[in-house]
Amino acid sequence: xxxxxxxxxxxxxxxxxxxxxxxxxxxxxxxxxxxxxxxxxxxxxxxxxxxxxxxxxxxxxxxxxxxxxxxxxxxxxxxxxxxxxxxxxxxxxxxxxxxxxxxxxxxxxxxxxxxxxxxxxxxxxxxxxxxxxxxxxxxxxxxxxxxxxxxxxxxxxxxxxxxxxxxxxxxxxxxxxxxxxxxxxxxxxxxxxxxxxxxxxxxxxxxxxxxxxxxxxxxxxxxxxxxxxxxxxxxxxxxxxxxxxxxxxxxxxxxxxxxxxxxxxxxxxxxxxxxxxxxxxxxxxxxxxxxxxxxxxxxxxxxxxxxxxxxxxxxxxxxxxxxxxxxxx
Length: 329
What we know:
By secondary structure, this protein is α+β, with helices and mostly antiparallel strands. The chain is 18% helix and 31% strand. It has helices spanning 2-11, 29-42, 61-75, 120-129, 249-258; strands at residues 45-47, 53-55, 83-86, 92-96, 100-105, 108-113, 133-141, 149-155, 174-175, 178-179, 181-185, 198-204, 210-218, 247-248, 262-270, 277-283, 293-301, 304-310. Strand 4 (92-96) and strand 5 form a beta hairpin. The chain starts with a helix and ends in a 19-residue tail after the last strand. The chain crosses the membrane at residues 64-85. Keywords: Membrane, Transmembrane, Transmembrane helix.
């Protein structure tokens, strides 16, 4: 049984990691020692118990011993690192860690984000491994917006034009004829902490730009809401209020008081040349007359609503004709 003896001698000097112990984690000292000892055996030498060194042929018992060593690692429950498969050119076609799994499927990468509230670095390492510049940011929102996808910001890279064989999905947002899409699975679910809702993102493999995905997390006390323009949506602080045709300030303030909300104001300025809005300026409440007109409402933070007003009635609501500029950051 010489072969068995040789295998036993090869495995004996390896570091041991017991399942369930503190150092059995991938980052633990025991795990690192185990991996280091495996690497030493891979180099072709093993230290005997009497201080001598024995060499093994590249075939036969040594190959079997290394296979047994790998099995021992798995049995110990040690995770040696993220899963990574390359296409032979140094670009990963598959990458997975505890937060996200990304696979090349035809002409696109499909990312399944299992834990959208994980450390931001996990997404960075995964997307960079497959050659994509994608960030996932958590932004503070109202309770009704927590777990909702707030949108994607797409910017150009060195070249965002896809290869000729890439067939963009027309259902997603587009940038220079590149289609991207974001959905949840099961459809319509909302990602929450420790939930079972997966965010699925599809990006053409040839895309070289930058994508910033924003996901809502419940705001901390005093934080301003990123979903400011959802004040009149279902479940939000001004749910049911209608301002499309404009309403007097006194009328809208009565609505705010019924909801225990504090109102702040912004003056809507119109461009005389174009007839479109040009800016929103903060306005002290004591300068707002009771007959001024409210054209829109934004939720600022918990308990605070912003009313966007003009001193006179305009021919039409400027927020509903596509001319509204984005708010200042």
